[in-house]
Amino acid sequence: MPPTRSKFPYLRQDFAASLVVFLVALPLCVGVAVASxxxxxxxxxxxxVGGIVAGMMPGSSLQVxxxxxxLTVLVFEAVRQFGLPALGVIVLAAxxxxxxxxxxxxxxxxxxxxxxxxxxxxxGIGLVIIAGQLYAAAGLKAPASGLDxxxxxxxxxxxxxxxxxxxxxxxxxxxxxAVLVLWKRLPKKxxxxxxxxxxxxxxxxxxxxxxxxxxxxxxxxxxxxxQPPGPDAFGQLAxxxxxxxxxxxxxxxxxxxxxxxxxxxxLHDGPRTEYDKELMAQGAGNTVCGLLGALPxxxxxxxxxxxxxxxxxxxxxRVLHGVWLLLFAALLPGALALIPLxxxxxxxxxxxxxxIPFRETVxxxxxxxxxxxxxxxxxxxxVAVNMFEGVLIGLALSVAKTAWEASxxxxxxxxxxxxxxxxxxxxxATFLRLPKxxxxxESLPQDRPVELHLSGLHHLDHxxxxxxxxxxxxxxxxxxxxxxxxxxxxxxxxxxxx
Length: 498
Hints:
Blueprint: H1 3-7, H2 11-35, H3 40-56, E1 64-66, H4 72-82, H5 84-103, H6 115-137, H7 146-151, H8 153-161, H9 164-183, H10 195-209, H11 222-225, H12 231-235, H13 240-265, H14 275-291, E2 298-300, H15 301-309, H16 316-331, H17 341-355, H18 358-367, H19 369-384, H20 387-406, E3 409-414, E4 421-429, H21 434-442, E5 450-460, H22 462-476, E6 484-486, H23 492-495
Parallel strand pairs: 4-5, 5-6
Antiparallel strand pairs: 1-2, 3-4
Helix pairs in contact: 2-3, 2-10, 2-15, 2-16, 2-17, 3-14, 3-16, 4-5, 5-13, 5-14, 6-17, 6-19, 6-20, 9-10, 9-17, 13-14, 13-15, 18-19, 19-20, 21-22
C-alpha cells in the first residue's frame, strides 16, 4: 500500500465531502454576511477560519463551523448599534471567553440548558430572520425591532405591489425559496448539487437573462473587507451595552455549537464529541475572526449534516472546505457581484423557516405543556425585546419551573377523632410551597394536640423551618399541648422534650 494511502486512508472520501460542504457553505456564508449588514467577503473569512482553524482542532471531528443564520439578528443589531469596527472586538472577546470556559471545563454544562429554551431561541431567531428578509426580498428597508418588522409586513406588501422593481425583486426571492423547497423532490443524481447553490445560480441566471431591476451583492475585495479592530474599537469595551452583547455572543454561539455537536454525534458512529475541547476550538476560531474583524462563527448543523451525508470520515473534509473557500475568495471575488440580493434573502427565509421547531413544539405541548410554554415564551420574548434578554427570560422560566417541580410536598393528616391529630409531611419543604404548607397546617383543629412527623422530608429550608416554628408556637399558645415533632427537631420548646 502506498505511504500516502496508509497515512490518509480516507483521503478520497474526505476530498469529495469537502467539495460538497464548500458548495453548501458558499451561498450561506455570503447570505449570512449580507443579512448581518457587513461586507459579503467577511462571511467567507469566517467560513475559512471555521474550516481551517477550528477544523484542525480537537473536539468534534465531523461537524463544520462557519457564519450561522442563528447569529444574524444579533450581529445586525450589534453593527447597527456600535458600528462595524466594534464587531471585531466583540467577537474577539467572545472567543477569549469561550477559550477560558473550555479550559475551565465548562463545556459540558451547556448540555444542562433546557432544550425548550434552545428551541425557543432558534424559533425566535427564525421569526425575526424571516420577517427581516421578506423586506430584503422586496428591496425594501426593514424596521429595526422584531415587532416592528412583523407589524410592518402588511404595509410593506402593499408598497411592493405598487412597485414594478419591488415585484421583480420579490418574485426572484420567491423563486429562490421555491427551488430550495422543490430541490429535495428531484432525482438523487440532481441533488448532488446542493439546493442553495442551485437556487443562487438559477436566480443569477434569471436576473441576467431578463435584465431584472434588482440589486446585486456589493464587492469590495477580500483585503479591503478585512479590518482588524483598532484602539478606538477596544475603547468601547467600557460600554456596558457592549459587555452585554459579548456575553450574548458567547452564550448563544456556545450553546448552538455544542447542541449541534450533540446532534452530529447522533448521525454517526465515530468518535464522540469532547465538549470542552470543542468549546476551545470554537473559541480559537472566534478569536481569529475577531482579530480579522469578521463575523462570529458557530458549528452549523446544515453544513455538518451535508459533510456526513457526503461520506466524510475525518476532520480533513472540513479543513479542505476552508481551503476551497479561501481559493474562491482569493481568485474569484468578482463572481459575488453577479449574485442578486433577493436570492440571498430567499435562502435566509428558507433557513429561518427551518429554525422554527414546529413538530417539536406540538410534541412538547402533548407531553410537557410547561416546556412548550417556555419554548413559545422564549421565542416571543426574542421577537418582542431582543436576543439576549429573550434567552435570559427563557432560562429564568426554565429554572423556576424546575425549582417548582422539585419542591413537591405532601401533607397527610390522620385524625381518629380522639387523641392527637397526626400530620405527616413528606417531600421537599421549600419556600416555594410554604403557602400551601401553612394553609394545610392552620386548618388543623385548634383545640386538639398535634403530632408533626417530619421524617419523610428530604429537604427543609430555613424559610420553612422558621414558618413551622412560628406555627407550632401559635398552635401551642391556645392552651393545647405543645406540638410534638418527630424527625428533624424545630426548637426544644415546641418538641415537647427537655
